[in-house]
Write a structure and sequence with these properties.
This protein is mainly α. It contains five helices and no strands. Bound molecules: magnesium ion (MG).
């Protein structure tokens, strides 16, 4: 599935009631919550020695992606363009792949 299709389909499952401001706030909080759930799983894996199924990681990544799409939609932003711009920024920052020196230099900023 491409990001444009995902964003369109995700929007169909979002609440449409309430003000745009309220929906933006809920989406931003939801994004933080789902990112926190992902972090919690990895904390349990690394910090507590739990066996975390890859499917659980994938589920939380999906939940996080849904909220990323929701925030983008609520700001009339195109998720695919966001992805492309992000990769372009990182290509400028790391023209030869990641390096510590390039990370420190941050030439794209
Ligand atoms: Mg979740």
């Amino acid at each position: 599935m491409n990001l444009a299709d995902y964003q369109r389909l995700a929007a169909l499952t979002a609440r449409q009631d309430g003000s745009v401001s309220q929906r933006r706030l809920v989406a931003a909080l939801g994004l933080n919550g789902e990112a926190g759930e992902l972090g919690e799983l990895i904390k349990k894996e690394i910090g507590h020695g739990h066996a975390i199924p890859r499917e659980a990681i994938a589920k939380e990544l999906g939940d996080t992606l849904w909220y990323v799409a929701a925030v983008a939609t609520l700001y009339d932003l195109d998720l695919a363009q966001i992805a492309e711009a992000n990769i372009e920024k990182l290509r400028q920052r790391y023209p030869d792949g990641f390096s510590r020196a390039d990370s420190i230099a941050r030439r794209d900023v």
